[in-house]
Automatic annotation (TrEMBL):
Keyword Magnesium found: no
UniProt-annotated location(s): Cytoplasm
Protein known as: Oidioi.mRNA.OKI2018_I69.chr1.g1923.t1.cds
Signal peptide annotation: none
Keywords, comma-separated and alphabetical: Calcium, Cytoplasm, Metal-binding, Repeat
UniProt domain EF-hand: residue ranges: 76-111
Pfam families: EF-hand_7
Family annotation (CDD domains): EFh_PEF_Group_I (cd16180)
Phylogenetic classification of the source organism: Eukaryota, Metazoa, Chordata, Tunicata, Appendicularia
Domain of life: Eukaryota
InterPro entries tied to this protein: EF-hand-dom_pair (IPR011992), EF_Hand_1_Ca_BS (IPR018247), EF_hand_dom (IPR002048), Peflin/Sorcin_CaBP (IPR051426)
Amino acid sequence: MSRQRSRSKSNCDLRQWFDKVDRSETGRLNAVELQEALMNNDYTKFDMHVIIAMIDMFDDDKTKEINFEEFQKIWAFLGNWREVFNQFDVDNGGAIDAEELTAAIRQLGYNLSRQFINVLMRKFDFSGDGFLQFDGFVMVLIKIRQLTAAFQPFDKMQNGTAHFTYEEFLTVVLQNT
């Protein structure tokens, strides 16, 4: 009973937060409002690229805005990934370096080279300080998931190799970036 009560309280708090950032009072959050709602560990706003990716993933009714039910899904999704992020933020600095990202990616079942980890770090280190904030980490996970799903149909032997025509490659890249 107390567990259900605390879950309701949490849901009530989430609703209050949603309503607070819903400045347009439409019952939906646009990208700017959603960005207001989501913070990194250092209290900076999420990068707008991550916000747009989140809207693309969770906007079930395709309005380019997030209603409360969709917001709850985003909040749960981010809560799960924040636990993983915090587990690998070994020094509790609120950001992860390339070594910590490598460990996280490996635990998630991906065996990626250090060179590729460096590419991810450069691409998603939105502050340019050599570390990924939580939003950069989330974007890494979103992109790896999207690109893996796009790659799998071409990996006929399921061994991590694929044969693409140049046009197929371009199509996969453009549909997933």
